[in-house]
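Support request from a user on the community tier.

User writes: "When I paste my structure tokens into the form, the page sometimes reloads and wipes my input. The last time it worked, I copied everything first. Here is what I submitted, just in case something in the input itself triggers the reload:"
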């Protein structure tokens, strides 16, 4: 095996720890259901599962133990997945991050539906944060696996393979429509469904979502490889399906109408900031790419140690371009915009709409000066740290997946809650 395609030692340890953790959780859940309570079942349910299962009725929320556990687990997952994706030979460019964007929208849509009480009792806990992110990951992994099988199949590079990506994506979306729309129809809160939802709106938009892989044909989606194409199309269609439920609810279920102004602020301010960053770095980014270098990513075969100890014309010419050029990358713009949006949405929701902060860390921050503005300032500071980190970091070519997944994680903890919060404000949920 090419050493640059093998796993790092830290990736191997991350995978081992994740497997042990999964076995621990599996043991705790199994023994709980069998009536043999023990330390594992007590830890799993007291600190993790109860706070999810009880949310739809009691909003038990986060605690310090599960907050730390989720953070560590997320880091281990990122490191492990980055290594596995690299060994599998998947693309690690910015296209990978772009293909995942619809899923960052998918999760907030589902959370808002759960917040509105539209899902049935069985489905509702699956859309409670952070559990919703595990469900999202499951759909992404399934979509990616099916797309990967097409890419390594006998019809690679043919029109048949292209058609297969569309058919597979449509089936994944149809499965989502069946599962989630059925749950909505069966929920206790929609037993008088004619008064709560416009079923025609839900059906029409859902069909539009299921067919989305076909009307996306010939668009920018065709620039993706097969794996990315299935992930992207399934995410777009799945988001449309969940949007259909919210649309059906918005038509007849909202008292007092839709509040639009939070959308303008939460989306507008990050857009202006990101536009400024893009304008600041795009010229240097283009120069670097024209020279054959992705800003912040070393050429194949060059290690970080080699780069730091070298003094070559390439380094002297290209390195200064990376400092600014990387700021025009989606890996920077999307997390930065998400963090700022999350800070603004939280501020508006708490100070103007009377919402409360359930996350223990966020609540502690907002309690410093008894205003959510402190949280907004913190998020702006995090956005600045992201810019600094990427402008200074140098990733080896085989660490591209890690680079993208770090950006994805920052989006999950920034952009995803920002979208959820602003959609709740808009719909009055």
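"...and here is what came back when it finally went through:"
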């Amino acid at each position: 095996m090419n050493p640059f395609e093998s796993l790092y030692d830290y990736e191997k340890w991350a995978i081992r720890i994740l497997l042990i953790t999964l076995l621990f959780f599996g043991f705790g859940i199994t023994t709980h259901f069998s009536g043999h309570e023990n330390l594992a079942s007590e830890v799993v349910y007291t600190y993790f599962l109860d706070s999810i299962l009880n949310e739809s009725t009691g909003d038990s929320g986060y605690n310090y133990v599960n907050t730390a556990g989720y953070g560590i687990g997320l880091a281990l997952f990122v490191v492990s997945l980055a290594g596995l994706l690299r060994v599998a030979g998947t693309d690690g460019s910015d296209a990978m991050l772009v293909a995942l964007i619809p899923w960052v929208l998918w999760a907030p849509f589902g959370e808002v539906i759960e917040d509105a009480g539209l899902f049935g009792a069985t489905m509702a806990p699956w859309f409670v944060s952070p559990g919703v992110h595990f469900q999202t990951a499951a759909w992404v992994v399934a979509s990616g696996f099916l797309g990967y099988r097409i890419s390594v199949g006998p019809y690679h590079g043919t029109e048949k393979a292209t058609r297969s990506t569309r058919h597979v994506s449509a089936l994944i979306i149809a499965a989502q429509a069946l599962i989630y729309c059925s749950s909505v129809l069966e929920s206790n809160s929609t037993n008088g469904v004619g008064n709560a939802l416009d079923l025609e709106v839900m059906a029409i938009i859902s069909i539009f979502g299921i067919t989305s892989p076909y009307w996306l044909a010939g668009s920018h989606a065709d620039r993706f490889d097969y794996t990315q194409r299935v992930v992207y199309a399934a995410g777009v269609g799945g988001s449309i399906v969940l949007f259909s439920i919210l649309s059906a609810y918005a038509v007849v279920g909202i008292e007092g109408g839709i509040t639009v102004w939070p959308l303008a602020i939460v989306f507008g301010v990050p857009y202006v900031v990101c536009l400024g960053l893009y304008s600041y770095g795009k010229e240097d980014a283009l120069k670097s790419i024209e020279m054959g270098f992705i800003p912040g990513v070393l050429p194949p075969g060059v290690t970080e140690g080699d780069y730091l100890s070298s003094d070559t014309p390439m380094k002297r010419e290209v390195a200064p371009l990376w400092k600014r050029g990387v700021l025009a990358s989606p890996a920077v713009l999307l997390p930065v915009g998400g963090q700022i949006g999350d800070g603004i949405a939280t501020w508006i929701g708490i100070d103007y709409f009377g919402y409360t902060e359930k996350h223990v860390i966020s609540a502690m921050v907002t309690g410093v000066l008894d205003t959510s503005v402190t949280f907004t300032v913190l998020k702006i500071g995090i956005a600045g740290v992201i810019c600094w980190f990427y402008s200074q970091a140098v990733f080896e070519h085989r660490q591209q997946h890690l680079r993208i997944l770090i950006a994805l994680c920052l989006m999950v903890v920034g952009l995803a809650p920002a979208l959820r919060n602003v959609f709740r404000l808009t719909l009055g949920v």
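Agent notes: The reload is a front-end session timeout and is unrelated to the input. The chain has three domains: 1-89, 92-253, 258-429. The mean pLDDT is 87. Escalated to web team.
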